[in-house]
Amino acid sequence: MKNFLNFKLLSFDCYGTLVDWEKGIVESLEPFLVSRGVVIDDEQLLEMYAKYESEIENGTYIEYKEVLVEVFNKICGRLSIRINDREKHLLLESFANWEPFPDTISALKSFKKNFKLAIISNVDDDLFKLTQKKLDVEFDYVITAQQVKSYKPSTLIFKYALEKFGISKEHILHIAQSIYHDIVPAKSLGITTVWVNRRKGRKGSGATPPAQGKPDLEVPDLAVLANLIENTNV
Question: For the segment 47-76, what is each residue's pLDDT rounded down to a tens digit?
C-alpha cells in the first residue's frame, strides 16, 4: 500500500461496504418466506440473491429498481412461491430501510477531513438519495450505474468515474467489500484498492458472487481504515 498522503480522493462502493445490505435483504425476505412456509438458511438466501442479481445485471441494462423486483421474483420462483403484483415489490420497498454499518458515518467524517469522497455504486440515482440522507456526509461525486447504463463488474462505470474526477488514478483509492464487483475491475484499470472484508469469519461470499482478486490492502471494517489513515496523516 502506498502512503495514504499520496491520495486525493477516496471512492466507495455503497451497498455491502457502507450499508449493511445483507442484513437488509435477510430481514425483509425471511418474514415473508416464513409466512409462506419456507425456512431457509441466511447464507443460502444471500447466495441466491447474488446469483440472480449478477445474472440480471449482466444482461440488457434495466434500472436497479427493476433488478430488485426481478431478483425477488426469481427467488420466489426457485422456492415455488407464487406472488401477486403487490408482493413483487417487497424487496424494492425494503431498500429504504437498509441501514449503514455502525462504523460507517464516523469513518466517513474522518475521511472527509483529508480527502474528497465519491460513491461508485450499482444503483439508481433516486435510490441512492434515500441512502445518502443516512450517511450524514456530503460526497463530492456520486456515480451510479444508472448514469452509465452499466453495472459493475464492467469497467465502464469506473472509466466514467475517472473522467468525472479529473485527476490521475494514482491519486484515487477505491474502497469496497466486493472482490467481484469492485476490486477486480478497479485493479484492472490500475486503481489502488482497499478490500473491506465485512464477512471475515463467515462462510461463503454472501450477496456477492465469489471471485479471486488481490487488493492492495485488506481491513475488517472502516474504523480500522480510518485509524490507519489518521495515524499516517499525523
Answer: 999 999 999 999 999 999 999 999 999 999
Angle at 216 between CA 53 and CA 197, to 5 degrees: 45
At residue 43, the 3 state secondary structure works out as: helix
Q: What is the DSSP letter of 205?
A: -
**Count of C-beta atoms within a 10 Å radius of residue 13:** 24
Compute the Cα dihedral for 216, 191, 176, 6 and give only its sign. positive
Dihedral over Cα of 131, 231, 178, 76: its sign: negative
**Strand ranges inside the chain, DSSP E:** 9-12, 116-121, 141-144, 172-176, 192-196, 217-219
Q: Whole-angstrom Cα distance, residue 91 to residue 94?
A: 5
Residues labelled as active-site residues: 13
d(CA 102, CA 64): 25
Can you give the C-alpha Rg of the chain in angstroms?
18
Q: What angle do CA 60, 61, 66 make, to 5 degrees?
A: 110
Please check the confidence at residue 164 and state whether its pLDDT lies above 80. yes
Per residue in 193-220, pLDDT (tens digit) is: 999 999 999 999 999 999 999 999 999 9
* CB of 150 closer than 8 Å to CB of 61: yes
Helices 222-233 and 104-112, axial angle in degrees (round to 10): 20
